[in-house]
Amino acid sequence: MTAQEADALPSHALVPVVEGTFAYCPNLYVQADCVGGQFRTAIAGHKVTILLPRIGEDLLLGITPILTAPDTQYEYAVQADGRFWGIVSTRDGQYCRTAQISRLAYRFEVAGSESDVESVCREIEFSLKDWWLSLEAWLDIYTDLDLLGHQRGTGGPPTRGHALTAHVGDQPGDTAQRLTWKQRSQAAMPRPRAVNIPDSAVLARCLHLAGSGSLPPQGWLYLREARSWLKAGQTRRAVIDACTGAEISLSYQVRQHAKADPVVVDQLLEQCKGIADVVKVLTRIGGVTASRNSITTKLADVRNKAVHAGWEPDVETAEQALAVATAVVDHAWPHAALCPDTSAATV
Questions:
Q1: 3-class secondary structure, 19
Q2: Which of 75, 80, 79, 51 has the alpha carbon at shortest distance from 171?
């Protein structure tokens, strides 16, 4: 195509690049290989690239460095809208080990008029909460971040954002249309150091799953609740949610293995008086799960005492209950099989 032919094309024939920022949960910690990375996801059915902030030059100066804006077409201040992009949270000498992310950027393309671009931005805005909640859930399943935040009373979708639009070929720094939306503000809260922090592979996996619109299986979601309650010191709530997740998982396995009419299976499960009865049904039809004795003594009995007597188990007892529940849930929905290969999810 010649330059004259390109000039003759209507403006809507060019593909606008939309870039924007939104505040991320301030309790997101990532490993060094995530910093400055670009990851694929989807929001409201639109392909979106998520861009993480980069490490600044301050790391070499021996001070706590502030993360700088990602590699974007438009220029953003270090403190975009009064918020930092994040900091290097731990390091090994002059090298970053982990970073705390406070803000993310995104990029996508839309073919059409300016009104079409704005319409897509609004679609993403309206779908952002569900996307975010899905991402939080998957990150908590694969890591120890505890974005659910029972300990802090925090968590939730990004708080504020804006988008900048321009056609492909415009120079960085050019004036661009700005689209802004309002969301609830949220203060950053300190959190304990996580043991298991996502690397680029885990982050890519979770963004892929969030983009697909899926949530973890129900058994894993209850385990997520239980883990968060345990970190908050609420051991009674932790064992109750853990046992609920385990019973849901066992019932799922019964339905998967039973050869009888589904209505009959449901009636059989309704006659079960607790998780111990469900285990009996599963083992009779050839299903495999955790030790029946462990389920009864370390999980079911602990849960029953917590529910019926208001007992607050000690941390060690609660941890044992969660370990048994995790084994049960993993038999129903193996952790390793929750996500397909996402090697192409990193840009």
A1: strand
A2: 75
Distance separating alpha carbons of residues 53 and 38, to the nearest angstrom: 9
pLDDT reported for residue 43: 94
- Phi and psi for 197 in degrees, rounded to 5? -110, 140
Q: What is the pLDDT of residues 21-53, one digit of tens each?
A: 876 666 789 999 999 999 999 999 999 999 999
**Can you read off the two tokens belonging to residue 187?**
């203060």
Q: For the beta carbon of residue 51, count every other beta carbon within 10 angstroms.
A: 21
Residue carrying the six token digits 């049960």: 328
Q: Is the dihedral of CA 24, 28, 29, 32 positive or negative?
A: negative
Count, residues in the chain: 347
Distance of CA 59 to the CA centre of its chain: 28
Give the CB-side neighbour count of residue 155, counting CA atoms within 13 A: 19
The first and second tokens of residue 168, run together, are 């492909």
Write down the residue that tokens 């300990």 correspond to. 151
Angle at CA 250, nearest 5°, toward 253 and 231?
Answer: 130
292 vs 131: CA distance, rounded Å:
38
First and final CA of the chain: distance in angstroms?
Answer: 28
Beta strands in 32-147 (DSSP E): 38-43, 46-51, 86-92, 95-109
Give tens-digit pLDDT for 212-243: 998 999 999 999 999 999 999 999 999 999 99
**Distance separating alpha carbons of residues 196 and 219, to the nearest angstrom:** 21
**Most confident stretch, 26-30, 81-85, 126-130, 284-288:** 126-130
b/e for 179-190, b at 16 or more Cβ within 10 A? bebebeebeeee
314-338 pLDDT tens trace? 999 999 999 999 999 999 999 988 8
Element spanning 135, H or E: helix 114-142
Q: Which residue has the tokens 């979106």?
A: 48
Angle, helices 200-211 vs 114-142, to 10°: value is 120
Tokens 């970073």 appear where?
99
Q: The tokens 């590699």 sit on which residue?
A: 71
